[in-house]
């Protein structure tokens, strides 16, 4: 059975907990909290396709453990000094519900919250970096890229495509065949899937002020209004 840090490396490409959260080693708790929220939204099981739910759930659970370690003074000190974690800690209890833990930290995410985040995120350097990272990680697979970048909708794809083509032309990104030679049939299928999800979302009766419905429903409700 792999160690926790081996699992972290397998899932996120690094066993450095700070690197996974994309923060400096000197990050304070508020910085860790923001980073954890952002990354956990990206891998939240509610955002995953049916075939990716299991993998997303594992990553979501791992992020919760990373955040718990780095926000515990003693556990963080041990990790900083030795580069190890205590795997006998209650953090690694198999029965722990990390979705409940996440909701405790972020108890209420509404459509308005997502709209506010989206307004700041779209067009930002953060979004550009996420797009570049997703392109490299998935080697140009637009299905995976659209599922990776936060707040993405069918209307964003032409913008993403233009940005990626520009970076490729400038030599900033490699030209992956999955991207540059993607069949039109696959593009149409992806667009149809987005449109179907948007139509389904219109049937959802969500109260934007009071609802604490699952993340997937809230995101789809927001996308259906675009």
Topology:
Blueprint: H1 4-12, H2 17-21, H3 29-43, H4 53-70, H5 73-82, H6 98-105, H7 111-121, H8 125-137, H9 142-148, H10 157-169, H11 177-180, H12 184-202, H13 215-224
Top keywords for this entry?
mainly alpha; Helix Hairpins; phosphoprotein; 2 domains; heat shock protein binding; 13 helices; 226 residues
Can you tell me about this structure?
With 226 residues, the chain is mainly alpha-helical. It has 2 domains: 4-105, DnaJ domain (Helix Hairpins); 111-224, no CATH class. 63% of the residues lie in helices and 0% in strands. The protein has 13 helices and no strands. The longest helix is centred in the last third of the chain and has 19 residues, at 184-202. The N and C termini lie far apart (45 Å).
Number of domains: 2
The average pLDDT is 81
One letter per element, helices H and strands E, the order comes to: HHHHHHHHHHHHH
Major pleated sheet:
none
């Amino acid at each position: 059975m792999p160690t926790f840090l081996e699992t972290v490396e397998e899932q996120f490409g690094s066993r450095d907990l700070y690197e996974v959260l994309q923060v400096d080693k000197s990050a304070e708790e508020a910085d860790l909290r923001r980073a954890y929220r952002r990354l956990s939204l990206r891998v939240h099981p509610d955002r995953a396709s049916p075939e990716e739910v299991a993998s997303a759930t594992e990553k979501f659970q791992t992020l919760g453990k990373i955040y718990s370690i780095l926000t515990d003074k003693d556990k963080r000190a041990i990790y900083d000094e030795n580069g190890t974690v205590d795997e006998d800690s209650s953090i690694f209890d198999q029965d722990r519900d990390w979705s409940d833990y996440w909701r405790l930290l972020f108890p209420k995410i509404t459509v308005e919250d997502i709209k506010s985040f989206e307004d700041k995120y779209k067009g930002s350097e953060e979004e550009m970096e996420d797009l570049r990272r997703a392109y490299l990680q998935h080697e140009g697979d637009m299905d995976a890229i659209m599922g990776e970048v936060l707040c993405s909708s069918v209307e964003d794809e032409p913008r993403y495509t233009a940005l990626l083509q520009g970076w490729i032309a400038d030599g900033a990104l490699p030209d992956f065949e999955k991207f540059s030679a993607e069949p039109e049939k696959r593009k149409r299928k992806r667009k149809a899937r987005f449109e179907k999800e948007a139509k389904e979302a219109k049937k959802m009766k969500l109260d934007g002020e009071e609802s604490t419905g699952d993340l997937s429903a809230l995101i789809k409700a927001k996308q259906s209004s675009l």
